[in-house]
Amino acid sequence: MVDIPKFHEFFTPILEVIKDKGEISAHEAVEIVVKKKDLNDEQLAIVQESNGRPLAKNRIHWAFSYLKQAGGITRPKRGYINIGPNCDSFLGLGRPVTLNDLRATSEWKEREELKAQRAISNSKDSDLSLLSDETPEDLIDKGIKSLRSQLIADLLEQVKGISPAAFEGLVLQVLAKMGYGGGDAKQIQGVPRGPDGGIDGKINEDKLGLDQIYIQAKRYSENSVGRPTIQSFVGAMSGGGCKKGVFVTSSTFTSEAKSFAAGLTDVRLVLIDGVRLAKLMIEHCVGVQVKETIQVAKIDQDFFSGED
Length: 308
Hints:
Blueprint: H1 11-21, E1 24-25, H2 26-36, H3 41-45, H4 55-69, E2 73-74, E3 80-83, H5 87-91, H6 99-103, H7 106-117, H8 136-159, H9 164-177, E4 189-190, E5 201-204, E6 212-218, H10 227-239, E7 244-249, H11 255-262, E8 268-272, H12 274-283
Parallel strand pairs: 6-7, 7-8
Antiparallel strand pairs: 1-3, 2-3, 4-5, 5-6
């Protein structure tokens, strides 16, 4: 798992940047902080689950907001930041600035009092995000991941309870939703099973049917699919003159089966286990429906970039 600094870990480098540069555009400050923290391309490529924005840079912007609330920085004009009244005292701590340091400032306390007066918070619940080292969007992401994990588990339970024939149809429907066969379910064709386990179906890779992908689906409740089963499927593919195949199960594949599939050179075989199938079902809305959509508004940094 790629490790990305928490938003509070950007407090000190941000303060160091504005102490050195003075008034600076927020965009430029972000880029300098990225370099100061030595973030690599892999870290910068991670996006927020809830909005698709770069996670690291998003956390830097949240750090701007927290520092402003605590007097660490100011926003003198649109899209710019500068030294705040508490900048020197924060840097004078001689250690990384923490969220508790911000909460100890008079500016922060005044903000909390104002919120209380407006009945935005109460004595026990000011802001959940202020009690942890995660931004509100981090908390949203955690909630999304928790809901998705539970949905995957529920889907697997449902899938393991349907008939083998229904499971085969489900797999072909997911592939059609992914765009195979031109996304047309009518292009899906059933194929009789052969003596060695055979093929459950075939689907055109494109609308013209220039190439086909052979499919086999195995609905198991507990048993893992082993190497012998995969070898039989590859034999059926070769007998049918097919170079591409997808083997799907509601359970898992043994390590031997995975190694065998990964080592194939003459044909290409993709293995999809139960968890991956459930994720594809969610992504392509097969067997699931959107319960509700929640919109979260956020400042448009480009709008306030200072450019007319």
